[in-house]
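User: Small ask, check this?
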Amino acid sequence: MTHSLSTVRQMWQLLEPVHATLYYAPEAFEEAAALGYATDGRWPSYFAYRAAPLGPVGPQLANALFYSFSPRMVEHHIAPAWPTAAPGQVLEARSTAVDRALRKLLGGRIGSPELREAAELARRAAESADTAGRPMAAANAALPWPAEPHMVLWQAATILREHRGDGHIAALQAHGLGPAESLVSHTAVGAAPQEVFSSRQWTDEEWTTARERLAARGLVEADGRATDKGFRVRTSVERLTDELAAAPWAALGSDKTARLAELLLPPVLDIVGAGLLPTQSTLGIGMEYDYERAGTDGPEAG
């Protein structure tokens, strides 16, 4: 089980840069600007691009799905999103942006047998993902598949990423970690400094209140560092997240999953090497967890 879950986590870490290209590539900002979105920061296009598969959702529903963002931040960007451009227009723009960006980033790999094989394997995994109870994954899975392999790979990465993200929210809630608490607990175990999470726009007072709630549960020290129980609970969250994300890889099988990992490494290195993506992520990519440490502090812990 431990080896299987490490593979699940590895596949997430390989596919995340493919998906995240949309939020950082210059081409994405150019296409967003053409629709009328502000591009002096990444958030107006981020919220529009990521929410577009759901249709013209309002702030209340978006808040439920963009779990760790401040509700004020979500409302600020979602309220004007659809008056600026309809979701269908945004979907067309994001496809154009991803196509342009990946063609530039991957160069001669576009159209190669290796990229085609990777796209086919990733699509098989994505199509096996059960989207019941996973609205972000379901919305992306309902979109038609593109024809070009690099676009198939991106869509598969997006479905699998959102499938994992939906499961992660369920894992956080199962452990009694609300939106702000999810970030405070992540900082507490050293996944990223507090400053990295400031982009989610929680106030200092809200952050302090969330920390106090965790301290009352014995999960963090007064200085914000995780207690041993806090490490076990956060590890249990990550373990459950990986367990809930495992089914597509079990369906693909260990040999084909290993082959996909091998095929993904060169294009992912191209993407990461381009310097588009931040060096520190709010997702905690690269953070290692000892799942044996989770002990009995599972979803029943409070």
About this structure: The radius of gyration is 19 Å. The chain has a mean pLDDT of 92. Residues 2-280 form one domain. The chain has one domain: 2-280.
